[in-house]
Amino acid sequence: FPAGYCVITYILGVGDRHLDNLLLTKTGKLFHIDFGYILGRDPKPLPPPMKLSKEMVEGMGGMQSEQYQEFRKQCYTAFLHLRRYSNLILNLFSLMVDANIPDIALEPDKTVKKRHAVLMCVSWQPAALDHWQGIMTHVTDGFRGHGVVSLRDSMAHRYHL
């Protein structure tokens, strides 16, 4: 699930992503709330291209873990699959230009162009993968090498387990 979440929120340009907008059901499934910012709008002046927090990576066992490496593979796979359907995705955005959606109405002529660029439609697959790897590196550079304590250890300490 986290891979799909990261890729689709990147492609749709969903902004204002933080852990308070990511909830957990009783069955352990994650779901999102608060989609007040889409198509690249964000209350932060320089938002990351994709939301992947240190806590999310810790929950996968850290950047060197097998789970995190699987997450990265799933992100690449999801991005490539969605690129295959870029014409459909872009046509759907084209149909929404006149739908009075505030984030589209701000720049209706740029809405489809921005999603076209995000999907790397004119690039060959290797270039698109390089682009995605750059995004992953960009969002994780902020918490590399800081002696990250695992989420499990942190919770055990906090609740005296």
Automatic annotation (TrEMBL):
UniProt cross-references to SMART domains, sorted A to Z: PI3Kc (SM00146)
Gene Ontology cellular-component terms listed: endosome; peroxisome; phagophore assembly site; phosphatidylinositol 3-kinase complex, class III, type I; phosphatidylinositol 3-kinase complex, class III, type II
Keywords noted in UniProt: Kinase, Transferase
GO biological process: autophagosome assembly; endocytosis; phosphatidylinositol-mediated signaling
Tagged with keyword Transferase: yes
Domain PI3K/PI4K catalytic: 1-144
Sections of the chain in a coiled coil: none
One example GO MF annotation: 1-phosphatidylinositol-3-kinase activity
Pfam families xrefs: PI3_PI4_kinase (PF00454)
Lineage: superkingdom: Eukaryota
The family this protein is said to belong to: Belongs to the PI3/PI4-kinase family. Type III PI4K subfamily.
PANTHER family per UniProt: PHOSPHATIDYLINOSITOL 3-KINASE CATALYTIC SUBUNIT TYPE 3 (PTHR10048:SF7), PHOSPHATIDYLINOSITOL KINASE (PTHR10048)
Protein name: PI3K/PI4K catalytic domain-containing protein
